[in-house]
Amino acid sequence: MNDHRLPLAVFDLDGTLADGSHRQRFLERRPRDWDAFFAAAPADPPLAEGVALALRRARDSEVGCLTGRPERCRADTVAWLAAHGLPEGRLRTRADRDRRPARLTELELLKKPARTRGVRVLVDDDLLVCEAAERAGLTVVRAQWAASSPAMKDAQECRGRT
């Protein structure tokens, strides 16, 4: 349940809570198959380290999720979070047509809650998002428990897709 009196602990999804490595093959081919990439997301296994941290943070914070996934993936993403026992909290997604780099979209999605509620911590695997958040004065935990791929980095920072 959401407690709007508590500060927020915001978790990125892909590479932080969810292991999307099985979907990378859709980004490594030309042309990239974005529909198949996102359609396969419900089969992502959870990343134990990220899930455990989210559950610990839920003791003193409202846990929310932030993702570069487009809004059209909301229902699948909410179902995935529930299926893996993650705390119910606000999910922030990018607009379906937003193709800006993750470091821009994710920080923009955090602006309002950072002003009105306070963000206790942002947990993210994307180095550029982490650096931008730190420059904005946020406390950051760098999620380094999942393998990253060149295809995913390109999707996040050059293609503005996740």
UniProtKB/TrEMBL annotation:
SUPFAM superfamilies: HAD-like. Residues 10-143 form the Polynucleotide kinase PNKP phosphatase domain. This is Polynucleotide kinase PNKP phosphatase domain-containing protein.
